[in-house]
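Tokens for chain A. Residues wanted.
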């Protein structure tokens, strides 16, 4: 696989899914050993929306000691329990809002320039319109907090097969929310998180998504499909996709958000030359 078209971007490794065979605080150093200099995280503290200072400092130290920059961080999501974000969930309103400044401060302290706020699942017995109104309020709050640290807010589409209760299961649906948040805040810092795995699993035309929404894309994440493993294990043509992203003007990093096919993360990077792994 020729991935030289991605050389302009550099890569950031998602330490919530890669190197998950190691304790969290050991993963930044493992990423460096594999040749990476940047990483991203889902919310790393599970259901705890306001972790202790000691927990936050330990995570900061793990990154700083390893020499890894955090490029992106999720607001409260608790993906380990199947939660797909909390922005639109009424019962999570206070916890989400309390988490916003905590996540923004952590992101800022490690140099992150993107915060991802997953929309949240539909809740039985709650009108979708009520959830959507709450989501807009919360996402506007999150966008303002991100703006305050010089970061963007990412809105992500997931795939319906794995997240059947998540309402944003197309690029168009996610971009519609992006536009609403930007209209509400006037900041223009809400962007589309273009996760090529989720979009492919939804059956979208990836080339058309890139061409149509190039000006809204704030970050790109990848995994092969089917399987959600490393590139080369499925059917996606990453050589073409990287070239299309480049031609469309995307210059940001590409996030590796896949499960290693063998279960050993360090063995899953053979498709990516070591000299291309460092962040640009």
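Reply:
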């Amino acid at each position: 696989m020729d991935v030289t078209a991605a050389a302009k971007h550099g890569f950031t490794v998602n330490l919530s899914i890669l190197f998950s065979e190691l304790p969290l605080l050991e993963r930044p150093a493992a990423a460096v050993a594999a040749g990476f200099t940047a990483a991203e995280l889902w919310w790393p503290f599970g259901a705890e929306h306001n972790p202790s200072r000691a927990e936050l400092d330990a995570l900061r130290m793990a990154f700083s000691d390893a020499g890894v920059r955090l490029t992106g961080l999720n607001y409260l999501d608790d993906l380990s329990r199947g939660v797909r974000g909390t922005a639109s969930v009424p019962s999570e309103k206070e916890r989400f809002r309390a988490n916003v400044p905590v996540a923004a401060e952590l992101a800022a302290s490690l140099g992150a320039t993107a915060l991802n706020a997953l929309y949240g699942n539909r809740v039985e017995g709650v009108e979708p319109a009520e959830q959507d109104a709450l989501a807009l309020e919360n996402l506007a709050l999150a966008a303002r907090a991100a703006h305050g640290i010089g970061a963007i807010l990412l809105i992500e589409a997931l795939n319906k097969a794995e997240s059947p209760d998540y309402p944003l299961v197309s690029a168009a649906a996610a971009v519609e929310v992006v536009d609403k948040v930007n209209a509400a805040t006037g900041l223009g810092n809400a962007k589309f998180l273009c996760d090529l795995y989720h979009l492919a699993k939804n059956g979208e035309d990836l080339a058309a998504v890139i061409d149509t929404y190039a000006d809204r894309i704030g970050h790109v994440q990848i995994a092969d499909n089917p399987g959600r493993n490393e590139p080369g294990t499925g059917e996606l043509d990453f050589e073409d996709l990287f070239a299309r992203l480049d031609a469309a003007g995307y210059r940001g990093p590409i996030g590796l958000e896949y499960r290693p096919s063998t279960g050993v993360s360090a063995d899953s990077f053979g498709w990516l030359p070591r000299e291309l792994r460092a962040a640009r």
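The chain has eight helices and eight strands. The first helix runs from residue 27 to 33.
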